[in-house]
Amino acid sequence: MFMLSSIHFFNTNVGYRLKEETMNRPEDDSTQLPVRDILRNFNRIREKLLEINAKKGYTVSFRAMREEIDSLGWNGILAKYHPDINVDDPAAFALFELYRFVYSTMKK
Questions:
Q1: Around Cβ 55, how many Cβ atoms within 10 Å?
Q2: How far apart are alpha carbons 72 and 102 in whole angstroms?
Q3: What is the pLDDT of residues 15-49, one digit of tens each?
Q4: Residue 76: alpha-carbon gap to chain centroid
């Protein structure tokens, strides 16, 4: 019994040491992309996102909402879009939350 438990202890500690040594070793540099490739990938992703925003019109609507908040003020937005006022509109809550998000980005 003692022999079996000591072998088990030895095997589990050796496995633990191997895992620990593997984790403490630096990653192989050959698997990492060079900085230029990483930046190229980020730029490609950014260009795709800008293209999608342009096609969908998200940027235009965001700017329009900001202009409306600027012109009406937050109290005007509350009076116009708050769900308690627009009880007949099923999308009133979602639209008001969108205006609230745009307003929160303006305060930053």
A1: 8
A2: 14
A3: 555 555 555 665 565 566 788 888 888 899 989 88
A4: 31
